[in-house]
Amino acid sequence: MKHASFALVLIAAALAAPDAHAQIVMGSSQAEACYRAVEAGDRGRAATLRRCEEGLEDLRLTPRDRAATHNNLGILLHRAGRSQEALAQFDRAMRIDAAKAAFWHNRGVALMGMEDFAGAADHFTRALELDFDRPAHAYFNRALSREQTGDLAGAYHDLNAALDASPDFALARQELTRFVVEPSG
């Protein structure tokens, strides 16, 4: 397999990748507002980050909602370009619920932004093992990560898996056009 020449701007890879996924929070008005901000596409404005932090101070949050709020704060921090802080929030979410596939996926997205592509690929793999509800996104992001580590065959395989999971996934189809498969031998 040959790879068509392509200069990938690393920050663009993280931004072009399917975004992290918010987790629904019920109860605390600040924690719920944090969730709604993620869903609305907030890029991590200071006021929104404070709202999420205030939500985490609510002692009435259930463990599920506390984990979800850490996750949502992590997404906002990542969007604001504060990936190291985002990782800390994803770690807190995972300490509460390590079986939540979205937390693994979101941590992988942050690792991509930090150019830790091998670590990101491992996180996307774990998200898939935990039955992530958006497998096409996990396969696509793992493909981008694998490509950056030089695993072109793995990247090609994952792009095809993304299309198997979601046949209308235009971005995966577009990325596949950069690959040329040649007969071996």
Describe the protein's architecture and organization.
The structure is a single chain. The protein has helices at 10-16, 29-39, 46-56, 63-79, 83-96, 101-113, 117-129, 135-149, 152-165, 170-176; strands at residues 2-3, 179-180. The protein has 10 helices and 2 strands, in the order βααααααααααβ. Residues 1-17 have low confidence and may be disordered.
Short summary of the structure?
The protein has helices at 10-16, 29-39, 46-56, 63-79, 83-96, 101-113, 117-129, 135-149, 152-165, 170-176; strands at 2-3, 179-180.
Which descriptors apply to this entry?
Serine Threonine Protein Phosphatase 5, Tetratricopeptide repeat; mainly alpha; disordered N terminus; 185 residues; two-stranded antiparallel ribbon; 66% helix
| CA-CA gap between termini | 12 Å
The proportion of residues in beta strands is under 5%
By CATH reckoning, the class would read Mainly Alpha
Share of residues in helices: 55-70%
Kindly state the number of beta strands: 2
Rounded mean pLDDT is: 88
The outline comes out as elongated
Number of H/I helices: 10
Outline the secondary-structure elements.
Blueprint lengths: L1 E2 L6 H7 L12 H11 L6 H11 L6 H17 L3 H14 L4 H13 L3 H13 L5 H15 L2 H14 L4 H7 L2 E2 L5
Antiparallel strand pairs: 1-2
Helix pairs in contact: 1-6, 2-3, 2-4, 3-4, 4-5, 4-6, 5-6, 6-7, 7-8, 8-9, 9-10
